[in-house]
Amino acid sequence: MSASRTTFYLNKQDAKWKGVCAGIADYTGVDALWIRVGAVLLTVTGVGFPWIPLAYVLVAWMAKAKPIGLYDTPEDAKFWQGVRTNPTRSTAEVRSKLREIDRRLADFETHYTSRNSRLANEIDSLR
């Protein structure tokens, strides 16, 4: 796939206006409602009045729309959100999962290649 899963995209599927807040929510893993509420509150209270709408328009103009089918499953989307927030932790989690799979495979191989006398006795008793 040519689309990067760690790049910010506008989320046009969940968009209310241009998809900027939905894109931020997709990128960070925070619910889009909270991103929208925060943007509106910052704008209305005057704290971010000239900057929030300006940044919104610039991001809507500069960012690309999220490709259809970027994530295969919701778990895949959650994984890539974790990668974006903390790549080192995500790498450690993947290594841990692979170590666990490797350990289980080694246990299976040991069980399969070793002589299991109890199992052999049970098979012999059934004959």
How would you explain this protein's 3D organization?
The protein is built from six helices and no strands. The protein is an all-alpha fold. The mean pLDDT is 86. Helix content is 65%, strand content 0%. It has helices at residues 20-28, 32-44, 51-62, 74-85, 87-113, 117-126.
What is the topological layout?
Layout lengths: L19 H9 L3 H13 L6 H12 L11 H12 L1 H27 L3 H10 L1
Helix pairs in contact: 1-2, 4-5
Strand fraction: under 5%
What percentage of residues falls in helices of 4 or more residues?
Answer: 55-70%
How is the main sheet built? none
> How many whole angstroms does the radius of gyration measure?
25 Å
> What's the overall average pLDDT, rounded?
86
Ends distance: 55 Å
What is the helix tally? 6
* Count of individual beta strands: 0
- Assign the structural class, choosing from mainly alpha, mainly beta, alpha/beta, alpha+beta, or little secondary structure: mainly alpha
Uncertain segments of ≥5 residues (pLDDT<50)? Answer: none
Keywords for this entry:
0% strand
In short:
The protein is built from 6 helices and no strands. The protein is rod-shaped, with a radius of gyration of 25 Å.
